[in-house]
User: What shape does this take?
Amino acid sequence: MAKRQKESLFARLKRRIKDGDAVLSVIGLGYVGLPLAVEMAKVGFRVHGIDVNPKKVSMVNKGKSYIQDVSSENLRSVVRSGKLSATTDFSVLRKCDAIDICVPTPLRKTKDPDISFVIDALEQIVRYLKPGQLVMLESTTYPGTTVEVMLPMLESTGLKVGKDLFLGFSPERVDPGNEKFTTKNIPKVVGGVTDNCTRLACDLYRAIIESVVPVSSPTVAEMVKLLENTFRSVNIGLVNEMCLMCNRMDIDVWEVIEAAASKPFGYLKFLPGPGLGGHCIPIDPFYLSWKAKMAGFEPRFIELAGQINSSMPDYVVTRVNDALNDSRKSIKGAKILILGVAYKRDVNDTRESPAVDIIRILETKGAKVSFADPLVDRLKVDDIDMRGIKITPSKLKSYDCAVVVADHTDFDYGMIVRNSRAIVDTRNALSKYKGRKIRRI
Ligand code: SAJ
Assistant: This one.
């Protein structure tokens, strides 16, 4: 009887993914990791969610979602079926065939990349690494991270990537609050260190996500993500500059943008706003510019867009000043109400929200600032812990100026317009209302 050829590690993992027997792990159960873990469990994989925050672990195991885009009902069903469980104990990695890293990649105060969370996760993976595992990084990072940082750390165990273990990068593309495009149906770009790494990663993601886009390397995949988000940052910077320009020339930028959007090709609508928020767009382009500068290249668009976008909170405050001026008031001593402090419409996330900058500037100028946001109860502005107010007609009347910063659907804009003394609208949320008391940016 011919001796059964020993199954290669590649063939074994390929089989286990195909048969649905692969045990998966997601490190980092945030707005990227939790939806991914739930999708993996929904198609039948056994998934170990790992997070350093015991509160998150406990909420997941109770089937209580803390991520807006994951319903507790969906979470509860995969937890109850035993497919998904969460832990703070990294030793579960010993049981896993594939590991997805979905941890934060913020910027340091110096605008340099901070990949310390990725390194921490990798150090744990190295502790429990075993032959045949696939490791995928999903966190947005500078081009080269997978090959220059992760590869050497993993191979320090003596295992060889492409033979004994498999490694790649696949950018997360979550758009928080987007009900149309979800983890399940957003095409997934995948770049492995070797062809076998790419093949296994594509097999895994094809089992979970509707379409997969293989590329030639992790570095290309890392760059794809940065192009996507830099594209947004630069175009938002462009329309913000158009806003400043049109204001100076007394042209209605909102009308200009809407009419330009009638062009059926070669134009993509972006809108001016109070500044860039969220954990991606204000941050990711600086991962790219940091790496480009290391390669001796000065990325001017990224820097310029960053300057314009970060100047918008100051500009909003000048518009508040103009609004108060109409009633012979100054910012000093004025009562200002910020409407919506989340970083964008219909999300409850305040990370990098421009509302924080606007409040800080107004407070520095002597204004007394409150906020109302149907999705956010508390907001930290430096060492001030603010609590939101519930808006009523009488309360609105007590403020000298209201500022629409996040244009949540749930606001009663008619009531706001009727009862506010003055309004600065940074989102064109009040376009259907007329009247001198409404001032758009
Ligand atoms: N913004 C504008 N004007 C615009 C669009 C956005 O001022 O025309 C502002 C928003 O108010 C927000 C910031 O920019 O403060 C970021 O907005 P965003 O729509 O890019 O939202 P994010 O950061 O939650 O999600 C983005 C994804 N969004 C879209 O593609 C629409 C996508 O860029 C990434 O998949 C995701 O970040 C990520 O995780 O990288």
